[in-house]
Amino acid sequence: METFxxxxxxxxxxxxxEDPITxxxxxxxxxxxxxxxxxxxxxxxxxxxxxxxxxxVFLARDNKVVFPPNPAEKTEK
Length: 77
Description:
By secondary structure, the chain is of the alpha+beta class. The chain has helices at residues 26-35, 37-40; strands spanning 3-10, 15-17, 21-22, 44-50, 56-61, 64-67.
């Protein structure tokens, strides 16, 4: 079963790496870190979730999702 590791950077500059989680916990982890109390108080600077190959599967900075990109925000060229 594939696991994912969450890396958190706080506005203070401190970092924290959470224990690996499985795919079924991704949604609740993202919600907690982007919309939860610490995020609403402005304590979290960056949330990065990587897979077993260290590829980024989710990235948010200042409570804004950077990756994966939101297709609705793309503009036609």
